[in-house]
Amino acid sequence: MELKDRIKAARKHAHLSQVQLAQAVGMTQTSISDLERGKSRATSFVAQIAGACGVNPLWLAEGRGEMLAERGQANAGPNASWLGAVESWDDETPLDADEIELPFYKEIELSGGKGSTVILQTGGRKLRFGKYTLRKKNIDPASAACVTVSGNSMEPVLPDGSTVGVDTSARTIKDGDMYAFDHDGQLRVKLLYRLPGGGLRIRSFNSDEHPDERYEPQEAAEHINVIGRVFWYSVLV
């Protein structure tokens, strides 16, 4: 099934006309029509379309997995209200009974380190997250953290500024899953694939601008440290 077929199937699933879908995601009806006819073969609105139609963004973008994501897996957009609202807060804001605070990972420049960086959990910025989602995914709250995606390498699924949830206890690579990892002090979120002998292939969704990277076993062992597997993500539309 090609992208044009998946978009049409998603729209039909949501019982939306082309005009209604266009209005929901900020596109024109002509643009939706061009996508469904195959006249346009790509769009940066995949996450928004998936959210409006209530389908799995990975399926819509790549044809991977099922059209309908299992409950507990994030869909972008307003129909994903079961995830709970993401709110800004500080140390003075009380948590609800079914909420937990998740720390963010970020790059920290070492003082006197000649520009060297390390990846650390910050003690400041946090995200309020529902315990229910963690329970459904069998994730220990103590192993959960968040990462902010930067750049366009993971578009259209993860636009710049997206937030992902990471299970730091799941560091064994399963081919094709998304992982957060420390690459010589650079915090990255990518699709990872194992290569024979312990090598590693790193893949971006935006493969036109960011081609695959291949690392020999020694390079991968010395320069790449997997932080954990991505189990949840949220995008702004």
Explain the overall architecture.
The protein is 23% helix and 30% strand. The chain is an alpha+beta fold. The strands form two sheets. It has a seven-stranded antiparallel β-sheet with strand order 3-4-9-5-6-7-8. Strands 1-2 form a two-stranded antiparallel ribbon. Helix 2 crosses helix 3. It is globular. The relative contact order is 0.13. It comes from Pseudomonas aeruginosa (strain ATCC 15692 / DSM 22644 / CIP 104116 / JCM 14847 / LMG 12228 / 1C / PRS 101 / PAO1). Keywords: DNA-binding, Transcription, Transcription regulation. This is Probable transcriptional regulator.
Task: Spell out the blueprint of helices and strands.
Elements (H helix, E strand, L loop, with lengths): L2 H11 L4 H8 L3 H9 L8 H8 L3 H6 L36 E11 L7 E14 H6 L7 E5 L14 E5 L10 E6 L2 E10 L3 E5 L9 E3 L1 H7 E11 L3
How do the helices and strands follow one another from N- to C-terminus? HHHHHEEHEEEEEEHE
- Beta strands, count: 9
Low-confidence stretches: 70-89, 110-116
CATH architecture of the largest domain: Ribbon
Round the Cα radius of gyration to an integer and report it: 19 Å
Globally, the shape reads: globular
Side by side, the strands of the main sheet go 3-4-9-5-6-7-8
State the separation between the terminal residues, measured CA to CA: 26 Å
Let me know the CATH homologous superfamily of the largest domain: Umud Fragment, subunit A
Question: What portion of residues belong to β-strands?
Answer: 25-35%
CATH third-tier fold name of the largest domain: Umud Fragment, subunit A
What is the mean predicted local confidence, pLDDT? 79
What is the domain total for the residues? 2
Q: Major beta sheet, specifics? A: 7 strands, antiparallel
Specify the helix fraction band.
10-25%
Structural class: alpha+beta
The oligomerization state is single chain
